[in-house]
User: Fold this.
Amino acid sequence: MQGFFEYFVIYGEKYLKISKKRGVYPLHCRTDMAFESHQRLTEGGKECSGITADSYIEEGMTVREVRVSTYDAARKIGKPQGRYLTLELFEHWQTDNDGILKAAALLSRHLRPLLPQKGTVLVAGLGNLRITPDSIGPLTVDRVIVTRHLTGNMPELFGSMRPVCAIKAGVLGTTGVETAELIRGVCSRVRPAAVIAVDALASLSTERLCRTFQLSDTGIVPGSGACNPRRALNAGTLGVPVIALGVPTVVDADTIIGEAIGQTPDYDSHGSFLVTPKDIDALAEKSAKVLGYAINLALQGDMSVADMEQFLC
Amino acid sequence: MQGFFEYFVIYGEKYLKISKKRGVYPLHCRTDMAFESHQRLTEGGKECSGITADSYIEEGMTVREVRVSTYDAARKIGKPQGRYLTLELFEHWQTDNDGILKAAALLSRHLRPLLPQKGTVLVAGLGNLRITPDSIGPLTVDRVIVTRHLTGNMPELFGSMRPVCAIKAGVLGTTGVETAELIRGVCSRVRPAAVIAVDALASLSTERLCRTFQLSDTGIVPGSGACNPRRALNAGTLGVPVIALGVPTVVDADTIIGEAIGQTPDYDSHGSFLVTPKDIDALAEKSAKVLGYAINLALQGDMSVADMEQFLC
Amino acid sequence: MQGFFEYFVIYGEKYLKISKKRGVYPLHCRTDMAFESHQRLTEGGKECSGITADSYIEEGMTVREVRVSTYDAARKIGKPQGRYLTLELFEHWQTDNDGILKAAALLSRHLRPLLPQKGTVLVAGLGNLRITPDSIGPLTVDRVIVTRHLTGNMPELFGSMRPVCAIKAGVLGTTGVETAELIRGVCSRVRPAAVIAVDALASLSTERLCRTFQLSDTGIVPGSGACNPRRALNAGTLGVPVIALGVPTVVDADTIIGEAIGQTPDYDSHGSFLVTPKDIDALAEKSAKVLGYAINLALQGDMSVADMEQFLC
Amino acid sequence: MQGFFEYFVIYGEKYLKISKKRGVYPLHCRTDMAFESHQRLTEGGKECSGITADSYIEEGMTVREVRVSTYDAARKIGKPQGRYLTLELFEHWQTDNDGILKAAALLSRHLRPLLPQKGTVLVAGLGNLRITPDSIGPLTVDRVIVTRHLTGNMPELFGSMRPVCAIKAGVLGTTGVETAELIRGVCSRVRPAAVIAVDALASLSTERLCRTFQLSDTGIVPGSGACNPRRALNAGTLGVPVIALGVPTVVDADTIIGEAIGQTPDYDSHGSFLVTPKDIDALAEKSAKVLGYAINLALQGDMSVADMEQFLC
Assistant:
C-alpha cells in the first residue's frame, strides 16, 4: 500500500493540489492484487499476451497464480514482471479453532519455495503502525522470530536456526526517509540472502479484505511498474531476491463508488479516502499473526504456536 | 460512534447474521451530527415541529445550533432532546501557525457555558484506541490535565485548579464491559458535578471529517434516542449533566454509495465498512489536541500550550 | 505494587516532602511477598503466633504456603489475613520449549480452587503500562480471553464458556481516579462472582524477580493491612472474593543497599528508586503471558496456546 | 546506554555466562557522563594529563566542560577524544511554568554551535521504547519536527526550513540488526551533513537522573573508547560529524551498592540490574520533550511550543 498511502503524507492543502495535478489515479494504483488487475484487463474475453493465469483448489482453499512475463505486459497490468500467488483462505479462518495456525501452515508451504535455502533473511515491515489498516507490516514484524544476533553470537546454541532480522520501515511522514532508502541502506550493511517485504494491500473488492493473501517474487514497486524506479524494492535495487507478502485491508473509496454507479468517478470527489472494515483492529492483528507465523514456519521449519510464543515477547 | 462500532464487535459470522436481522441500518445511526439529520428531515422545505435551527458566523467560523425540544421531534430526528452546537473550523486549521490553539480557544468559549461553574468534572474518552478513526476519545484523554488527585491531596498547592479526572472507557470487545456500565460505575464512586463524554462521530459528508466539531448538552445515547436506554450516558442514567463532545472521522460506506447513486443502497453490500481519510493518523492526533486543549481552557482558565505541555506527560 | 508506586505519583518536590513526613518506609511496604515477610519476622528462630508456613516440591517447583489467621498476626506481618501461595518456577522457564505453557498450567492448577465454580469473573489489571516493571497487570489483561459480551449476547454459541470481563485500572496519576474507586465502581454494575486482581510486586531478593509467582485469597490492601481501608480491594470493600495474583519485578533500592551494608539505610537516600532487571521488557511480557494463560486455563478449561491465540487479538 | 543494555539482550543463561567471562564490568561502562569519569580519575588530587575540565554558572544552571585531547587520556577515561558539555538544569524544571521550554532553549544554545550551519541532519533515537528508562531516544524522535520530505518535495513552501530526518534505531534483540549497522546503512543513502544521536545514559549518582543533560561532539562508542570500533557511531564510521545528546536515567545497581559499602561489589551480585526513579514514566517523557524541542530550536530557529505542536502529530 506504499503508493496508496504515501500519496497522502501531506502537509497542507498546497501539496494536495500538487498531487492532483499528477492526474487521475489509475486503476493499477487502486489494487495491489495482480489477479484483480488481470481480471479487469481481460474482461469481456479480451486477450492479454505476456500474462498467464491459473487457479486450483488446495485443501479447500482457492489458489490463483498470475505470471507476467514481458515488459509490455507489465506496463499494461501495472505490475512488475514475475509470479503472483493468491491464497484465498477458508471463510471463517479468523474464528475457527486453530484457524490462524492452519492458515499460516498453508501460506508457509507456498512461501518456502520462493526463498533461498540458506543465508540471512531480512523481513521488512512496510506501512504505518498508527493507521490500523496500514499496520499489517509492522504488526507482522512483531510476530517474526528474530535470530540473527543469536545465530551470530551463540552459534553453539542457535546455529541450527536460520538467521533472521526484521525492521519496521516506518513511513515517510514520520521519518523523512523513504522506505526504499531505509531498506537499501540496511541491506548494504546486513547483506541478506533475501528480503521479505510485508505490506498491507489495496483490493477492488471488500470481500477479499483480510482473507486473500498475496505472495510474489517481484518485490514491490510503489505506485506502478513504470514510474519512479528509485523507490522500487526489488532485485534490481537491493541486489537480492525480494519476496512480497501482503493482504488487502482497504478499498479505495472511488472504487466502491465506481462499482455502484458503473463508471469511474471524478477523482476530486473521494480520491483521498479509504474504505476499511469496522472491525479492522482484530482483523489486522489476526492477519499479521498468519503472516508472521507463516514466515517463521517457512524459515525455521515446523514449530508449534507455543514454541513460537516462547521466542516472541 | 458508539453504536457505529459496537455493532461490529463481532466474533464470527453468526453474530453478523443476528445483527442483520435487526433490520436496515437507519439514517440517524449513520450520522451523529444533529444538524445533518435536521437538514435531511427538512429537505425540500419540509417542516419539522419541535426543532429549531440557527447559524451564524463567528471569527470566520460557521456556528450552527439545533434545538430539539419535544419527545416526538427527538424520535423523528433520532437524537435526544437538547441543544447541539456545531463549529466548523477555518479551512486550514491543521496547518496554520497556532491553528490548534486558536481552534481550542474557540471551542472552549462554547464549552464553558455548558459546564457547571464548580465541582469535579469526569472526562470519559469513548472509543477504541486501536482503530485510528475511533481513537478520538482516548487520544483526547491523553491531552486532558488530570488534577483530582492533586487538588485532593495537596490543596495548598493545587487548590485553585478545577478537580478533573479522566478515563478511557475502552470498548466492549476488549473489556467485556459496556462503556455505559463502566462510566456509571465510576460516577457512583467519584460523584462528579458533570461528565464530558468525548467520542469520534460519523458524518454524512467527507468534507466535515476532522473539521466540524459538535458539542451538546444531551449526553450520548448510542444507537438512537429511542432504543436501549440501558446504554445511554445522560443525566437520566448518570444523575449529572453529560456534555457530549466530538468530531466526525468516518462516513458509512453506504452513505457514500447512496450519494453516488442517488438512493439508499442495499444494507448487505457495505454495511460493515467505513470510509476515512488516508491521513487519519495525523488528523486524529490534531483533532484530539484541539479537544483536549479546549477542555483544559474551559476548566482551568487561560493557559499557554507550553503551560499545558508542562502538566501533560 | 500499588503502595510502592502510588507513593510517587508526584507533582513537584513539595509532595515528596509531605510523603517523607510520613516516616520511614517500613519493611512490609518493601515486599509484597508474604513468605518473605514471614521469613524476616521469624529470623533467628523467633516465633510468630497466628501464622503458619509450609513448603513442598511439586513437579520440580517449590510451593510455599503462608496462612495468616489472626488480626494481630496480620498487623505484625503487614499483610491481611488469609492464605498466600508462592510458586517458584523452574530456573529456565523463560527459554525452555513450551516453558510458558508449562508454567501457566502449574499456576492454573493452584488458581482454580481459589475461584468460585461459576459466575462472571472480573480480571483487574493494576499498575502502569508506561513503567515497564509496573506493567504486569495491564499486559496480563491483554492475554485474558474476554467473553462476557459473547456469553451474554450469543449464549447458543458461547454459553459453555465462563463469562469473563477485564479492565486495565490505570494509575492515579493519569486518571485522577484511585484504582480501588474504579474497580468498586465497575463491580457495582457488573456484579461479578469474583475478582482476580493482577499486579506487579516488590520483593526483597533480585533472584525472585519474574520467577516466583504469588497467589492469595486476601485481595490487595495497598500500603499495609492496617492503614487506609478505603483503598483496599477485598471481600470487605467489593462484596465478593478477591484473588490476588502477581509476580515481583522490582526490589526497593533501600533493600539492596541494606543487604549490602547489613542494616536499614537512611530513607532519604534512595527511597524513591527501584531496582529492576535490565531485560525487564522481555521478562514482563513472558510473565504476563504466564499469568494470562493461567487465568484462561483456570476459567475456560484446557486449551492449547493456538486456541487461546485465536481468541486474543 | 548502548553498552549498558545491549550487554543484556540475552537469550538464556548461557549467554550470561559468556558475558561474565569478559570480566568485571568496568567503571567507564557504568557511567556515560564524561565529567563523572573525570572526577573519579582525579579523586584525591590525582592529575590526568590530556584532559581539561572547566565549569561555570549560566542563568542559574551549572555548565561543565571536559575536553579529552589525547589517545592515552581517552583510554584512561574510557571515553573518545573530544568535547563534553554537561548542563545541570535548575532544580524544579519539571514542574515550573514553562520549565520545559526554558530548559530546551538553554540546551539549544549549546547544541547549535556543534552543528554544521546547513545541510540535512539525521536524528537517530537509540534505545528501547519498551524499557521506560531506555526510551529517551525514541521518545525524543517523536518530538523532532521531520521536514526532509517537505523541503525536498515542496521547496516553495518549506524551503526555508532545515531538512531533518529521524529514525528510531530499535535494539538488537527486537530487530537482529545492530544499531550502528542500521544507522550506517541509512547514512549511506541519506548522506546527511551531521547526525545527532540521542540516547539514555547511565550515571554514577541518582541526583543527576533526568536533570543533567550531556552534549558531545564525539559520537557514541558503545562499551568504551577502546573496544569494538565496528559498533562506533562517529565521524570515523559514519563519515560526518556525530553529536551525542543524552540524559541519564539509570544508575547501575553495583554503583549504588559500591557507594554504600565503600568499595566495588562483586560483579556477580547485581550486575544485571539497574536503578531508576519510580516516576520514570513522567520524567522520561519530560526529558524527551526537552531534547526534542532543543533539537527543533537549534535547527529551525525560534519557535513557540504551539508552533512546534502544530508540526508534530
Q: What stands out?
A: The longest helix of chain A spans residues 280-300. The radius of gyration of chain A is 19 Å. Strands of chain A lie at 51-58, 61-68, 82-88, 121-125, 164-168, 194-203, 212-216, 242-252, 273-277. Chain A has one domain: 7-312.
